[in-house]
Every structure is written in C-alpha cells, then in structure tokens.
Amino acid sequence: MNEIELREQLIREYVNLQRLKAAADREKELEYQERILKARLQSMGIHTEELDII
C-alpha cells in the first residue's frame, strides 16, 4: 500500500465514523457498514467468520 492508498483508506474510515455519529438509527448504520466491510474483506479472500465476536 502506497501513501496515497493509505490516505484514501484513512479518509474512508473517518467518513464512516462520521456517518455513524450522524445516523438517526445507529444500529442500522452499523449493520450496513459491517455488511459492506465484510464484502470488501471477502472479495480480498479474507474469511470473516473467524473475526466475528458475536
């Protein structure tokens, strides 16, 4: 990962936190972000079942 990609990733994480803070239904927003992140991880070949706590 180069510096530009790292900056983009950090901005994306910051935006997601801001969306969560501003969400009318935080639980729904959190579930949405989790689904998107799982899809991204799985597209990279990362098994997310082992990462789930609950």
**Which bin fits the share of residues in helices?**
over 70%
Terminal residue distance: 30 Å
Rg, nearest Å: 13 Å
Question: Uncertain regions: pLDDT < 50 for 5+ in a row?
Answer: none
So how many helices? 2
Strand content: under 5%
User: SSE order in H/E notation?
Assistant: HH
Could you describe the largest sheet, including whether it forms a barrel? Answer: none
Q: What coarse outline follows from CA principal-axis ratios?
A: flat
Decide which structural class fits the backbone: mainly alpha
Write the layout of secondary structure elements.
Elements: H1 3-22, H2 26-43
Polypeptide structure, described:
The chain has 54 residues and is an all-alpha fold. It is 70% helix and 0% strand. The radius of gyration is 13 Å and the shape is flat.
